[in-house]
Amino acid sequence: MKYLYVNGCSMSDGTCLVDDPTVDDIGYDIRWSKLLSDKLGVKEINEGEHGGSNDRIVRMTIDWCVNNKDKLTDTIFVVCWTCPDRFEIWSEYYKRYIQISTGHTTHDDVDLGMANKLVKSFIINHFNLSERIKKHFINNVIFLQSFFKSNNIKYIFCDGEPVIDNLVGKYKKYKFFIDGENWWNYNDKINCFDKLARELNSFGIDWSPEDNHGHPGVEAHKYFANELYKFIEKE
Questions:
Q1: What is the DSSP letter of 152?
Q2: Domains in the chain, please, with CATH?
């Protein structure tokens, strides 16, 4: 194994780990993916993005595989799923995908006027949360799982946000198609990075006790890297 490929949202890219006005707030050298790649002795490839959707995760992961077929047998993939209501739509005006979270454009696109008009119209006319979870998020999981398996690609899934509940809780009929053996802490109480950070009381620089919201902190990233390392070594 030579490469660790990671995709996800801000829970994977290391958002809010660094408090330095001269740089962005991403802790590239102390995020869990870098710590995990160091433990494995491989090169880190992290395509996570703050505000990124599950649609983006699948699209970019497949694109990377298509463009790096010579590396597939030497790569282990860690996909850290994000909130199931997140998705993306193509904007012909901007000639790129727009990321959407909780019905709004995400961080990099919040000031784009045309993008916000596009998203508002889409949400009003074409969005239903239950259908989004059933027909898009769960389908994304099953599709990417099948893609990995059919191409003999080494992978594990994990949760940035608590999304397993949508697979084994409310939508139980889909559980049959999910390979929990390749999913970190699939049946455990602490089954996502967000819950782990809360259990450890380890939060990033954006933590707000008033609204009980924020990103995982340094110790949480260290612990998560160790947990994933043990899971990979067990495989």
A1: T
A2: 3-84+131-234 (3.40.50.1110)
Distance CA 162, CA 83 (A): 7
d(CA 131, CA 170): 13
User: Encoding tokens for residue 99?
Assistant: 């990321």
- Of 223, 221, 228, the C-alpha closest to 13 is 221
Q: Dump pLDDT digits (tens) for 182-229.
A: 999 998 989 999 999 999 999 999 988 887 789 999 999 999 999 999
Identity of the residue numbered 209: P
The whole-number pLDDT of residue 69 equals 97
Interhelix angle 218-234/32-40, nearest 10 degrees: 40
Read off the pLDDT of each residue in 70-77 and give the average, rounded to a whole number: 98
